């Protein structure tokens, strides 16, 4: 534990002259920041125009150079207003450039140092944080498969809490670290492929990490008390009654699988269908994906089966290239209940009751200076 806090304190001393630090203004980059324990959501009153709901990190805008580093602003999409906003200016020290974004969990962003493969967690991208913090994690020891990277935290306040981190850095391994106690990652082999990446979550209800295998045939779990992987077959009940032609269309789609836990502890399994469209213009060929449908299955606590539903009540689910989110719409006026907000391919929302897809303006919504746009959780 002493090692954990010593590593944070050394970084704090080194960069004590920097007010705020980050480097989203470099391609595929993330920032390092000072250790200020006063960063809390009450700072949001200074940024009243910024989203206080789940929001989408789109990229950054470089404003100018300074002796300390690059100065710029982050760009966000606020789903409650369906508008794009910028935060206040932040400075990026030159020596912090070059860290790749890995994913987000509980409002924290994970970054990777390319030289030694050390992972850092930062709350830099929380819109209300004026003095961001960093938590250094051990080196993973190898270059991760970037298309498979996903990360999940067991706590929304890892600075204060004893927390665990689970991640997918390769196709057949789940990597786990308890930073206050572990000096290295534990890489656990799995019998099933973990691709695609966006299905790793932490269940507060069960105090376990959950994930699905490729094609969603099995669900894996890691109980933190046992540190042992367990698998169970994903049993889906009450499949939707849709025309045969619709099933044939879905068979042509790419399907990704996602897990998410509601604030009350309900577990949902989601199938996301996207159709690849090929278009030719003169000598150029363009391809892009279109979201066609979502299917949501709610876990039955007794049987552990997942039953199809088109009614999740007041809930909203957020899906993208990182950990899925689930919030109560009534907590954030402007959100549409019983909906899924998604990014990639396209930016939009899906009404579960009607099956209606609503696209937002993606022309200006594409990530400018980050590899993937990420939904960020407003908690803590």
TrEMBL record:
Domain KIB1-4 beta-propeller: 83-343
Pfam family, one: Beta-prop_KIB1-4
Database matches in InterPro entries: F-box_BR-signaling, KIB1-4_b-propeller
Name of the protein in its database record: KIB1-4 beta-propeller domain-containing protein
């Amino acid at each position: 534990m002493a090692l954990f806090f010593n590593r944070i304190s050394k970084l704090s001393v080194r960069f004590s002259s920097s007010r705020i630090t980050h480097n989203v203004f470099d391609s595929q980059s993330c920032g390092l920041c000072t250790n200020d324990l006063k960063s809390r959501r009450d700072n949001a009153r200074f940024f009243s125009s910024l989203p206080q709901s789940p929001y989408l990190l789109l990229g950054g805008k470089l404003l100018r150079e300074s002796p300390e580093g690059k100065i710029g602003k982050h760009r966000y999409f606020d789903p409650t207003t369906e508008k794009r906003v910028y935060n206040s200016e932040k400075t990026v020290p030159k020596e912090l450039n070059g860290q790749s974004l890995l994913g987000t969990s509980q409002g924290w962003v994970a970054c990777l140092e390319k030289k030694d493969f050390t992972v850092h967690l930062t709350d830099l991208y929380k819109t209300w944080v004026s003095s961001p913090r960093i938590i250094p994690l051990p080196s993973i020891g190898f270059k991760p498969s970037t298309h498979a990277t996903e990360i999940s935290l067991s706590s929304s306040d890892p600075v204060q809490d004893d927390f665990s981190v689970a991640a997918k850095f390769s196709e057949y391994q789940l990597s786990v670290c308890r930073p206050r106690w572990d000096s290295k990652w534990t890489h656990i082999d799995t019998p099933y492929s973990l691709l695609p990446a966006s299905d790793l979550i932490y269940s507060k209800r069960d105090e376990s990490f959950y994930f699905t295998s490729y094609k969603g045939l099995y669900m894996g779990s890691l109980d933190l008390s046992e540190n042992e992987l367990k698998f169970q077959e994903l049993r889906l009940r009450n499949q939707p009654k849709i025309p045969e032609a619709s099933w044939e269309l879905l068979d042509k789609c790419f399907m990704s699988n996602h897990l998410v836990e509601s604030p009350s502890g309900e577990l949902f399994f989601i199938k996301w269908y996207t159709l690849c469209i090929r278009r030719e213009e003169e000598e150029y060929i363009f391809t892009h994906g279109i979201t066609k449908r979502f299917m949501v299955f709610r876990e039955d606590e007794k049987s552990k089966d997942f039953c199809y539903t088109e009614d999740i009540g007041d809930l909203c689910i957020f899906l993208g290239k990182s950990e899925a989110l689930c919030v109560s719409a009534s907590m954030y006026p402007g959100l549409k209940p019983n909906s899924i907000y998604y990014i990639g391919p396209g930016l939009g929302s899906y009404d579960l009751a009607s099956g209606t897809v609503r696209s937002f303006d993606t022309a200006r919504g594409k990530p400018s200076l980050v590899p993937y746009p990420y939904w960020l959780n407003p908690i803590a």
